[in-house]
Every structure is written in C-alpha cells, then in structure tokens.
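Preliminary data (for renewal application), oxa(dethia)-CoA complex.
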Amino acid sequence: MPTAIINSLGTYLPKKILTNFDLEKMVDTTDSWIKERTGIEERRIADDEETTSILGFKAASAALQNGNCSPDKIELIILATTTSDYPMPSSAALIQAMLKATNAGAFDIQAACSGFIYGLTLAKAYIEANIYKKILLVASDKLSSVINYEDRNTCILFGDGAVAALISNEGEGLEIKTSNLGAEGIYSQHLLIPAGGSKKPASEDTVKDKLHSVKMEGKEVFKHAIRRMAKSSLECLEKLNIQVKDINWVIPHQANFRIMETLAKQLEIPFSKVFRTVHKYGNTSAASVGIALSELFESQEVKPKDHLLLTAFGSGFTWGSVILKKTETND
Ligand code: UT7
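Predicted structure:
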C-alpha cells in the first residue's frame, strides 16, 4: 500500500497586525485580560482584497516552491475553510485557477477549526487507495470577515491566515501514520454563524441583528475542546500502538494557551513539547494547526523518526488527531 507523505509546507500570514492594545480601543477589554485568559498578544488581519482563496493561493504557491513541484503535477486540491469567498463556487476551484493547476480536481471541506486534520485524513485515504499521487491540501480562513468587532467575547480571539501541504506517495518529509476524527452535532449551537445559510438567508433583519458573525459560548467550547482533543489524541496513539512518551511534539489547535496547558497535563506530556503560535496569530481556524506545524518544521527541531501529534477541535462540534512521523533522511 502506498504511504502518504507531507513533502513540503507553505504558509501565508497577512502583513497587518492587530494587537491587544488596538483592541483596547475597540471594545471593553485589556491587554492583560486577553494575555492571561488566552495567551494571545496579536493576530494578523487580511486586507479587503485578500480573500480566503488569495490567502490560500499564496500559501499553496509557497508549498509548491518549497517542494520544488510544478502546479500541473497536482491531481487534487482540497481546501479546508469556513470562510469561502462565495457560497458557490468553492474556493478550492478559485485556487486551482490562480495556480493554473490544470490537471487537478478541486473541492472545499468544512470542519471549522478541525479542517486541517480532516484534510490530512482525506489526503491519506486517497493516496493509500492509489487514487491520487500528488495532492495539495490547503487550509485558509479569513475569520475577520465573520467577526463582530463590537463583541469582546469573540473579536479578541481570531486572526486570518493560510497553510498548504504538498502530500504525495513518495519522497521525504512527514509520513501521515494514522488519524482519528469525531463530531457531535448536538452541540452546534455553542459555536456558529447563525445566518447566511439556507436556514436564515441574508436579509435586512439578519444584517441588522448581526447574525452573520461568529457567536460562541466560550466556556462550553473550552470544556469540550480539552476533553475531545485529549481523548482523540490517546485513541490515535493506541491505533498506532505507541505511547505518549514516544511523541516528540504535540501541535494542538491554537485557540487558547490555557486549553493547550490543560491538554498537556491530561496527556502527561511536558508543556515544552507543545508547539505554540497562538501568541502571535491568535486562532486562525482551519489553518491554525498547519501554520504551527509549518513553523515547527522550518525550525529544524524535528529530527528523523520523530513522532508529531496534531490535534484540533472546532465548531460542529468536530475534532480529530493525526500522528506524523518524520522520514529517515533529512533532505
Ligand atoms: O476555535 C474553536 C475553539 N475555540 C475555543 O477553543 C475558545 C474556547 N474558549 C475560550 O478560549 C474562553 O472561554 C474565552 C477566552 C473565550 C473566555 O475565557 P473565560 O475564562 O471562559 O471567560 P468567561 O467567558 O467566563 O468570562 C469571564 C469574565 C466575564 O465577566 P464576569 O461575568 O465574570 O463579570 C466576561 O464578561 O470576563 C469577561 N470577559 C472579558 N473581559 C475583558 C469576556 N470577554 C472579555 C474580554 N475582555 N475580551
């Protein structure tokens, strides 16, 4: 059976920085509250012209360049996003056009903040089934387009960003060893955008009532996020028949420093092994785990045969974990 390997990664973070001090001027909050409760210091915000597909295209171009791969070699583009440019068509199709990936199929998946993990799982399945040999997984979100910057419960948390992974059946990089996905739709009301879909299409009232922005019951999400990421991580370890001590790095969804700290305690793993970018980018939704993975990979801290545990949780509720193993040579 072919194995699925992440050969290269690329990211794109918008230039504009929104700091906690900027937010102090917008809503009733403070830098110290945000830092203490979330660990976030700043986040990136895309320009008006920088749509989700453009963020994704820039990350995809970087991944292709880092992997020395031309766009015509790509057979499938999977985009994980919650903030597609349009309800129709998919933003994956827009990325396909911008890349001129003329031999690729393209579609979006929606698993909110778990999107990158869901995408890795799909890519692994396609490659192992020998359906495709080269897949570009993109995770891109422009959460700033669905945030109410008068709601201090949500506006302090999110940022914009994108990541892309070139995944193939050969070469060096990070082998996708196993994965575990889950969902519990009964909790959908705890984290959602109430309008703009088929249930409540856009109307004057939905705009007036600010129903096109993210609503979240933070405490509920917090509690479930820890429980689900811990359980799914342990299930993944069990599937691969390895132990927590065999994990060299944990890369959790970058939503809140305290969630990651509690997760590390529950997994009985030193916090120094938990890779973090939340302080500088906030929660970038589908892209969050992938952006952190890319930064860790670039740091050269990942050694041959290292095991990496990725785990995420998001609206749905959805969650999932993936274990990656660095291949033996360091090319
Ligand atoms: O991407 C999907 C995953 N998302 C997440 O994982 C987010 C999970 N949730 C969280 O990270 C946390 O629940 C938050 C950071 C959103 C909130 O932290 P918390 O410790 O759960 O605070 P809270 O909502 O219980 O609020 C505590 C207090 C409240 O005041 P009172 O009622 O105690 O007087 C809030 O009104 O803090 C107040 N508060 C704020 N104060 C200053 C809420 N937001 C703010 C704010 N600045 N931005």
